[in-house]
Every structure is written in structure tokens, then in C-alpha cells.
Protein 1
Amino acid sequence: MAIDLRYTDAHRALRAEARAWLEANVPREPLPSFDTAEGFEAHRRWEAQLHSGRWSMVTWPQEFGGRGLDLIEWLIFEEEYYRVDAPFRVNQNGVFLFGPTLMEYGTPEQKARFLPRLAAGEDMWAQVWSEPQAGSDLAALRTTAVRDGDHYVINGHKIWSTRAVHADWGFGLFRTDPASERHRGLSYIVFPLRTPGVRIRGIPQLDGKAGFAEIFFEDARVPVADLIGGEGQGWSIAMATAGFERGLMLRSPARFQRTAQRLVELYRRETAAQGAAPIDPGLGAAVTQCWMDAEAYALATYMTASRLIAGGSIGAEASLNKVFWSELDVAMHRAAIALLGARAELRAQGSEAAAAADEACRWMDGFLFSLAGPIYAGANEIQRNIIAERVLGLPKG
Amino acid sequence: MDFTFTEEQELAAQALRGLLDDHCSGADLRRAAEARGAGAFAAARALRRERLKELGLAGVLVPTSAGGLGLAPIDLARLAEEAGRAALPEPLIDVEGIALPMLAQLAAAAPGAHDALAAALAQQATVLAVTPGSGPVAAAVDADYLLVGRSPDELALHRRDALRLTSVESVDPLRRLATVELTDAAPLAVLQGSVARQAWDAAASRSAALIAAQQLGLGARMIAIAVAYALDRKQFGKAIGANQAVKHALADAQMRVEFARPVVYAACAALDASAPPDASASLRVSHAFVAAADAADRAARAAIQVHGAMGYSWEVDLQFYAKRAWTSAALAGGRSAHFARLHRALLDGSAATGPDHLFDAGAARA
Ligand SMILES: Cc1cc2nc3c(=O)[nH]c(=O)nc-3n(C[C@H](O)[C@H](O)[C@H](O)COP(=O)(O)OP(=O)(O)OC[C@H]3O[C@@H](n4cnc5c(N)ncnc54)[C@H](O)[C@@H]3O)c2cc1C
């Protein structure tokens, strides 16, 4: 083996198959935002449609509805997916965070119960970890799940749970040992969001839509059978999930390459059209840097994927990825907003669908969302601490 | 599709690293810089050269039919990185990666170059290429032969002593610069026209890609030096490296190096030992050059800042790596020209964009 950056015939065939299916099936018009009831249901139908083509979980084993593809093949599929601007994955947290966690830590019964429904788009999942007093310092969480016969009784307050307003299930982190502190005594428990004693209140995001929610638990009863892994193992399981989150799969490079492509096209159009108001030369440099960084992120992901396929592993260096893509995303959207000038603030009139289809709206919505990237999945300051301490070996503060 | 190095490639890099740890430490660089070519330096350099010969790299990019090892630029990538990591003063990468494949091309057409090629492959002579129109050349004063051209349409071989060399001081005391002027002396061998131009074009791409690889090593070395200092130096009763401002600056430098790395490797993998690159490979080389130069610069500035006043002093070896990084950024056309080229290609649409083009036809060779 040696560095050989050519696709195999099987890769080309996979690409062609994915392309043909996506071109025939991707909705002609962009779907309305999944942070609305209407948009959420439209995205749920899209998940089911993806499943009907066996494209919803391409890296999962066949028995759970996947294709058993390796990471390079996954990258190829993602390239085709973003090439046609297919809808964002409303079940993202189920697909890339909960699913892989369950595959590693779930019992056979749990896997059979949850994974096929997840793959089929029947259950949408929300991550229920953060609390008002436990953000970056997640180990400070206080919501308790106390054993009572064959149930846990949950009490407390969670927050920032993405898409919990419309989703079906939550994967949560709770304190099963009320006397415990920090990362000891935590457990990973899943529960239907419509459980009695669970109250969900949407929180509007910067765009005004309730894209995340706070969740109040008042004596909510959850069967012990829905504990994932052992009682008290929650922290290490959650950290494995967080590894998936920061690591390869949360943000595939194709997403940023597509944004970079749209940015370059916008820059070319604006340059060609520039009349009395010339373009700031700094924007040309910014666009070039964005394109370079999107390419670099893609190449880095191929390199990591190759290393993992060859038996390697990914550790704290996942934090480098998370900082890199989140800051790239901000930079790309900032450049686009600057190129759009006064048009950037205008909202499309009429429906959610009109907004999704409108170029300026897409950039502005994307810009607002990009600002969350350096915060969620572990704020970038925390990631830089991890890089400094665990990659470079600097002392803990 | 495989984006991992072979075991042999890794072992070769490790061997070079071990050798350079022994014979090209910061202290060795300091002695060399302060001796300015005097006796002690010459002896150390001679020893290092002997040890480098034992690596058996001679003719690594020269076709086997011409007596070389017939390998590709990617086989030199990790070695170039190690040369950068040590700020190796000898032009190992320039000789093996740039000049020797050109000399082999010349020898294939002009018998007058046979002796020079044979001597170079036997490690009895060094040959360097002086890009037409370029500024002063590092280590040319030590070369036996020089490849030159009155224009990019000419590739001519001369003995060094047939040309007029004038030493020039550099801010990087280890570069040993000299300007090279042609004289009336007739070349030992010469190629004219498009063959010559292609040889220079191909050499320029190899040079840019392999300089980028050296920048990766320089960047990583400077971060390592800064980390060691940040662990050692205490202020306010604790190691300065426990402070987030210090941590984050080094984390950012690390990120730039790690995201330049795959670009550099992909650029090297896209190049041939002697043929000029296609358009997409050539853009990837420019990308690699810019990304690696910027990463090394970021590392240099972070590392100097982490050292406080010590970082501004001659006493810290860090300076040798930083100066090499900065001077290297101006070589092979220079960072600014490579960046401008990428910008132009995006603006005129000749650069491929979008998710499905990353490794398009011709962009990657085995
Ligand atoms: C769009 C979005 C979606 C989210 N979705 C979910 C979800 O689905 N489920 C879920 O459980 N959570 C979710 N979160 C919450 C997310 O995980 C937290 O926001 C994140 O962990 C940071 O916690 P915090 O918001 O409480 O900020 P804080 O921890 O209060 O941090 C505030 C600021 O202080 C900095 N800071 C804190 N500690 C340190 C330190 N030690 N060193 C240096 N700087 C520090 C942070 O970096 C940040 O800049 C989401 C957040 C966002 C923005």
C-alpha cells in the first residue's frame, strides 16, 4: 500500500448509483426549515424516503438497515448528497451520535428495538445532556434518575436540546447515584419525549425558530430496560458519543465544500457585476482562504478515514477537526454576507419554503447557524484546551 | 484509494530523523551559524554529509533505467518533512528532489551530462538547479555542478567553477547564499526549447511541494520547542503553559500545521518525478505551499511569543527554524504568487470547486 488518491471502480460505481438515486429523489424545491412543525414532518418523510433507497445509514451494518460501507465510501456518498443540496439530516443526532453509541454499548434487544426504526426515519432523536448549570462543565449536571423497582424516576431540568420540540426520543445523561459527584454516578438513559412528567418548552434561536428546547422532568418514570450500558457508566459512554460528535461524522467535508463552491460562485457573480461599488480586495483573499480550508478539511478527512480503515484510531485530535470546521463555516458565511451587502438582511416574502429557496436568506440563515458551531459539541475554547493538554501535553490549568 | 504512507516510507523518515537528531541538533546549528563556514563547521558538515550518504537516497527520483531508484516525489515527502524539522543546512532535498531528476533528463539527451550524473549517483558530486531569473541560491557554493538557463527555454549544465558565484549574506545564517552569473564558458550539456521549459516547470512544482513538506517539519519543530519551554518556564508559581492564552496560541498553530499536512501530502502524491503537473495538481501544489508557509509562520510567531524576551534573543535555537520558515516562504515563486494564482483560478473558473471533485482525473497518481 502506498498513497494512491484514485477511486476504485467500486467507488465509481457507488458514486454513480448514489448520484442516480439522489437526482431522481431529492425534492425539487428545498424543504421548509426543520425547526417548524411543517418542515420537521417534511424532513421526517425525507428520512423515510432515504431509507427506502437504503441510503439513510450507509455505514451501518445491513441488519440495521445500512449498507455496511466504509468511511471512504461514506465520504463519497456525502459528496453526492451535498452536490445536489439534499436536505439537512433532521435526525442527525440519532444517526451520527446515538446510533453509533448504541451499536457499541447497547444490548442485542436494544439494538433490535431502536436501530431499525432509527434507520427508517420512524423515530427522531434528541440529545438531552446540557443543564442550565452544566454546559461546558457537563459533569456538574444534577438531574437525577432514581431507581424505583424496575423504573427510574427522573427529576430535574435539561436545556438546549436540539429539535426536542418535534422529536420522539431523547438520549439523556442523568445522575443515578444522587450522592455522587462529577462524572461518577451518571447513567445514559433513553426515554420517549412524550413521557408523562416530561415537559418540553421550545427556545427560539437567533432566527426566531424554536430549534432547541428546555426539558423539565417531574417524577417522569422510565423503564430500567432503557438504560444503555451499565448504571454509573454514563460518563464514559457519553464521552464516546462526544468523540463521534467531534470526530469524523458530525460534519462531513462535503457540506463545507458545497458552501465554499456557492461562495466562489457568489464572488464571481459579484465581481462580474461590480459597477460603481468595487469589491473589497480583502474579500477575494477571504474567499480564497475559505476554499483552501474547505479543501484541506476534505483532504484531512480522507487521510483520517484511511488511517481508521487501516486500523488506526482517533483521539483528542478530533478536537482539531471541530475547531477547524466550525471556524471555517463562520468565515465562509461572513464572506458571503459581506458580498451580499445590503441584500443580506432581506427576508423572502411568504412561506418558509420561499425563504429556503432564496439565496440571500440561505446565506443569512446559514450565517446565524454558523455562529453556533463554535459553541455546540463542546465550545471551541474547551476544544483548544483539549488540544493543548492531550495533543501537545501542556499542563492542566 | 489509500491516504497512508507505506512502512518503508515511514522507516526511511525515522532513519533520517534519528540521524539528524544526532548530527543536526539545535546546538549543531548554532555552532554552524556562529562559525560562519570556519573549520569546526566544515568538519561537522562533512560528517553529516557522510552520514546522509549512508541513507542511500542518491537518485531517489531518477529513473531506474538511468541508474536511480525510480521513486516518486511522494517518497520524498516525509523525508523533506524531517529535513525541515531539523532545519538541515545541506540541500539534500534540493539535490535529490529537484536537480538530480533534471540532470537525468539532460543526460538522456546530451552525453555531456553523463559524467556528472554518474558522479552524482555515486555520491561523489553534488548538483543544484538555479532557476532562471531567480535570486541568490542556497548552498550553491558547495555544489560541484549547477544546472542553469539563460531563459526557461534552456537547461544547461556547468561545473560550478565555470560560473561566477558571489556570496551574499542572509538573515538565515545557515543558508549560505550566493548569486550565480553565467560566464562565456561553454556548458557541458544543454537542452533547448519546450523540453527544457517542461523540465523547469516540473522542477518548480516539485520544489514548491517539497518546500511545503519542509515547512510542515519546521512548524512541528517550533511547536515542540515552545511546548517544552512552556512546561519548563514558571511564572506566578506555575508553568506558563498552564495558561489558556499560551495553550490556545499553540493549539491554533498545531491546527494550521495539521490541516496543511494532508494538502502537502496530496500535492506530493499528485506529482511525477520529471513530467510537469496537470492544472489541478499544479493548483494543489500552490495550495500546499501557501497552507504550509502560513502554518509554519503561525508556529514561528506563537513560539517566539511563548518564549517572552528569550524569544527575541539570539540565544534561543528557535530562531534557526523560524528564519528558515520565513525565508522558505519566499522561494519557489513565493507564497504571495501562489496565493494570487489560486485566487485567479477561482475567479476565472479554472479551479474545480464543489464536493465531488476532490480527486478528479489526473489529480492523483500512485
Ligand atoms: C445550536 C446549539 C445546539 C445545541 N444542542 C444541544 C443538544 O442537542 N443537547 C445538549 O445537551 N446540548 C446542546 N447544546 C448545548 C451545548 O452543548 C452547550 O452550549 C455547550 O456545551 C456550552 O455550554 P454553555 O452554553 O452552558 O456555555 P458555558 O459553559 O457557560 O460557556 C460560556 C463561554 O465560556 C467559555 N468557557 C467555559 N468554560 C471554560 C473554560 N474552562 N475555559 C475557557 N473557556 C471556558 C465557553 O467556551 C463559552 O465561550 C447546544 C448548543 C447550541 C448552541
Protein 2
Amino acid sequence: MRVELKHVFKSFSHNSSTLEVLEDINLTVEEGEFVCLLGPSGCGKSTIIHLIAGLERPTSGNILVAGRPVDGPDPSRTVVFQEAALFPWLSVLGNVEFGLRMAGIPPIKRRARALEYIRLVHLSKFIHAYPHQLSGGMKQRAAIARALALQPAILLLDEPFAALDAQTRSVLQNELMEIWELARPTILFVTHNVREATGLADRVYVISSRPGQIRDVQTIQVPRPRHAEDAALLTHQRKILELLGEEVEKVLQDELGERVHFPEAQHAVPPGHAHGMHL
Amino acid sequence: MGKPMNKFEFLKPAQALFLLYVLWEATAWVFPAWPSPRAVFGVLADNFTQSTFRAALAGSAWRMVVGYSLVILVGISGGLLLGRIPLIDRIIGSFAVAVHAIPGAAWVPLAIIWFGMTERAVIFTILLGACGIVMVSTDTGIREVPPLVARAARTLGARGTNYFWFVVVPAAIPKIVDGLRLAWAFGWRALMAGELLTSVSGLGQLLSQVAKAGQLDQLLAIMLLIAGIGIAVDSLIFKRLEHAVRVRWGLV
Ligand SMILES: Nc1ncnc2c1ncn2[C@@H]1O[C@H](COP(=O)(O)OP(=O)(O)OP(=O)(O)O)[C@@H](O)[C@H]1O
Ligand SMILES: [Mg+2]
């Protein structure tokens, strides 16, 4: 299924202040395409994932999936959340079976399917373990299995491999590639890692710092399997790093600036009294 | 880990108990009318050989089992209804809070009017004395599904009744268990009050009997037993259950 964001704006309101998070985002992921989102921390990448998942509504603009506006979450669009978000009262098996059970798949079939995806993320020895007994990376792998087990048409991954060591990360990247090549889901993949993005994606969107805007799109036409030393990949990486460098600098400036202005913006304290309320 | 060092940490529970025992022994030595611990424990041990005492103990235990089962049933289902159906919450929500605010003993007079000096009156007292807290905590629990869990569940296709039974209810279990633990303590107190005032054969009624007969050693022995059972059930069952749940739900 094709995903399309048209002139999407998103802001969050707290009390009387408004935080502009996304500004005029235009983005498409073609059916069966693998697209990565790159951008500095806080630029709104997770927000984009939540919007497409139907967990949030845009302030304005349209989000279309297969040509239809998104109206709430749907199991054909599963999410691997940045914070795993496993159900603590269910074992790994229970977590992976959860979506299948909600879909009404009979017990024997859903058990088999769950075990298949647990094997894929190398957690077979931990099927009966509970989330509190798993490491951060293992939780993330369980969450990946849980999202894959529903065999979604659209897979939304929010920094799924950030908590993993390089070894496991590359094994899982390969496995994700295999699944993608086999079942061809539409994938939107958020990452901080430029190499990961260029290694996996057909296209990479670079998002600017808040308010998030599309800064650049890189189409990566290097055939798969890709090699890390591929000259074309390195060119893409250099280009992206350059763009990101500027953005990260902006983030830091912005945050330092924000801290200085914080008291005035929040409480409209008269100048000079910002730090002396109780003295 | 990181627990602040307590000045009296060197005093282990067993040592503290021993210290209390010694103090008690000493006061009994100073005031001869005050029974010594050895005498009290002797009376207590002797009690267990008496069939009337054992019958009273069994009676109390039985009423507690029945009463507490009703508390679980009424408290949890009531709390679920309150949390799930706004209309019911509107109508009896404040009623549940009011029930929860009335101490168990205060239900006894009403229980006696409705059921007479019967076992049913005692069970009614336990139910009313303890189900309010279970209702209130169940209600709070199902209103507080962690947002992360709620999001994950919705993207995995959970909605309606499925969402309620497979997400909302399990997410509320730590709160429900907290409520059940408090309800045990409230129910145990209500049982004693009920038995004391209705004279249904049980530990509470024994208490009023020996008090009337002026048997101070018996009185202390029975009070000790009441405290002992209360603490034992709480720490052997409820504390462990609560801890196990908190660990699994990732709250510790
Ligand atoms: N529910 C919300 N209410 C208020 N503000 C929010 C909410 N969700 C996100 N934000 C704000 O929106 C901005 C973007 O958040 P988002 O989580 O999308 O960033 P991100 O790009 O995923 O960052 P990171 O790379 O650190 O995960 C942040 O400033 C955040 O504080
Ligand atoms: Mg994020």
C-alpha cells in the first residue's frame, strides 16, 4: 500500500503555548518501497510514524494510505516503537501472539506463526521469558517479531535497532531485508544512523530540525546486496552527513537559546526577575 | 541498591521481637497483675487443645473465606463496571467512595438489623467493610492504562471488548492487587468487630467472653493470635503477590 503525506502540519499545545513540530511535510512511500527517515533528535520523526499509524491526527494536511485518509490505527499498519512497548504481563510468545489473537487466528496456527517470527529475531530460547527479564535489545527484537507476525502491508519502524550491538544489528538488518524482499511490505524506517539508512533504503528523507521540514531526498540506486565500501553509498553518506551537521548545529543553538528564554516564555516574568522570584 | 542507610538497620526483625519479649517479661515482673509472656503463650498453646477454641477459630476462618471471596467478586466486578460504564460511575461512583469511607465496624448495627445476630450479619460486615477499597482501586486501575501500552495495543488491532479484557484489565492488575491487600486487612478487622458484636462463635466473640470473665491472660493470648494471623496472611500471601506482580509489570 502506498503512503502519502500531503502538506502535513502538526503542533502540540500545552496550556497556552504551542509547539510546532512538523511543517508542511510532503512525503510518499510507494507500494513496496523501503524508505528511511533521518533527522536530528526532536525533529518529529516519531511523530510522523504515529501520524501514519493513526495514533495522532495532523493539525492540517492529509495522510493517505492506499489513497484513503487514515482514520485510526489498523493492524495492516504495524509499528515497532522506539521504546519497544511490550505488554509486561505477557511472555515473549504472548506478546508476539497478541495481534494474531486480536485478529481471531486460531490458537494452533497463531502459535506456529509466532514461533516462526520469534526464531527470525533469534529469541527462541526466550519464548517464555517476560519483558522484565529481557535486555533492551531483546525487548526490541521481541517487538519486531510482534509487528512482523501480523504480516502487515505497511511496516513502520522507529529506530528499531538503536539499542543493539553492531553484530546483532547487521544480522537483523539482513533479516529485515529478506522479509522485505519476500513479502514486499511498504517500509518506513526511522534511524539516526546514516550508514544504516543508505544501506537499507530505496530513498532517504532528511528532516530538518524543529519544526521538521523535508530538507532533502536522496534516491539510492545502488543494487542490493550493498557493500559498505561502495563508492556511490559513500557519496550519499557524505552528502547526508553534511546536511545533518548543519541541522544538529541548529538544534544545539536552538536548545541553548531556548533555555535562556525559557522563564519569560513560560510565565511572562518581567525582565530581570527571571531568577529572583524568591530572593 | 541505593537504599538510605537506617540508623537502626542493625536491629533484625528477630532481634527486635526478642527485645520486645524481654521488655514484656520485665514489665510482668514489675507488675504482678500483668501476665508474663510465658503465661500467655502457655494459655495460647493450651487453647489449641480445646475443641471449643478450635471450633471458634475454624468458624472465624470460614467466615473470612466466604466474606473475602465475596469481596473479590463484588469489588472487582463493581470496579470494572464503574470504570467501564460512565453512567454507572455517575450513579454509584460516589456511593462506592462513601462505602469505602465507612469503617467495617460501623456496618455491624445495620447488619444486625437486617440479618439478626447471625453468621450472615458477620459476612455482610466483611463485605461492606472491604469491598469499597477493591472497587475504588479497580476503577482507578482500569482508567490508567500506560499510554505506550495503549498505543501498541491499538496498532495491533485491539479494540472494543478485546481491548478491555486483553489490555485494560491486565494493565490494572497491580492496582487491583494493591486493593485486595488492603481489603484483607480491612476485612479481618470487620470480621473481629462483627463477631464481637453479634456473638457469633469465633475469635471476636471469644474476646468478649474472656473480657467479661476478667481473664487477662486469655485476652492477650487471643489478641496475639488475631495479630499473628493478620500479619502472617499479609506477609505470606499478599506481600509476596504484590511484589511478584510489581516485578512482572516492571514497576520496581
Ligand atoms: N504527545 C506530545 N505532546 C507534546 N509534545 C510532543 C508530543 N509528542 C512529541 N512531542 C514533541 O514533538 C517534538 C518531536 O518529537 P518526536 O518524538 O517526534 O521527535 P523524534 O524526531 O522522534 O526525536 P528522537 O530522534 O529523539 O526520537 C519534540 O519536541 C517533542 O517534545
Ligand atoms: Mg523518536
